[in-house]
Design brief:
By secondary structure, this protein is α+β, with helices and mostly antiparallel strands. It folds into two domains: 12-52, Arc Repressor Mutant, subunit A (Orthogonal Bundle); 72-146, 2-Layer Sandwich (Alpha-Beta Plaits), CATH 3.30.70. It is 36% helix and 19% strand. The protein is built from five helices and four strands; from the N terminus they run αααβαββαβ. Strands 2-3-1-4 form a four-stranded antiparallel β-sheet. β2 (101-106) and β3 (113-119) form a beta hairpin. The radius of gyration is 21 Å and the shape is elongated.
Length: 160
């Protein structure tokens, strides 16, 4: 039986596998094994272990936002009036159900939440802010910024 590293301790082969999968999640097991100089069964076993240990959460296709018709990428800062548990949970539940919201973070500083949102156009942004965000109970302030240029966008983690 192979002695694998602890779940929070990746060796160089694990890092090579994860880096390759981050670059191309559709790489074949045979090609990946060739790249890292390991047999296909051993490579497959390592991938399964990395999945089981939660290093690999899912496999997905990354779509081109513009080609899918989402011309605007927005960052929305939100402050809540009060920070009572029920109100915070209600806000989180409502925002989690909005398909336009790609990411939502509870943050420190002047605002309570930061949302990364995709919108088709200016009218769609108005509808989203006025009809979806403003009515959420407890929302005190909404501040929206539009991304003019995407300088860098990646989902790959730096494995060092």
């Amino acid at each position: 039986m192979l002695d694998y590293p602890q779940s929070n301790d990746l060796d160089e082969l694990d890092k090579a596998i994860l880096s390759a999968l981050q670059a191309n999640g559709r790489v074949s097991n045979a090609e990946l094994a060739r790249r890292i100089n390991l047999s296909p069964p051993a490579t497959h076993a390592r991938i399964r272990r990395l999945e089981d240990q939660g290093y690999i959460r899912q496999y997905t296709a990354l779509l081109d936002r513009d080609k899918a018709g989402y011309d605007m990428l927005c960052f929305v800062n939100i402050s809540l009036k009060m920070h009572q548990f029920e109100q915070v949970e209600q806000f989180r539940e409502v925002v989690s159900q909005m398909p336009e919201v790609l990411e939502c973070y509870h943050i420190t500083g002047e605002f309570d939440y930061l949302l990364k949102v995709v919108i088709h156009n200016r009218k769609d942004l108005e509808r989203f802010v006025v009809n979806q965000l403003t009515p959420i109970p407890g929302v005190a302030r909404i501040y929206t910024s539009l991304a003019l240029t995407e300088v860098k966008s990646t989902t790959a983690l730096p494995l060092t």
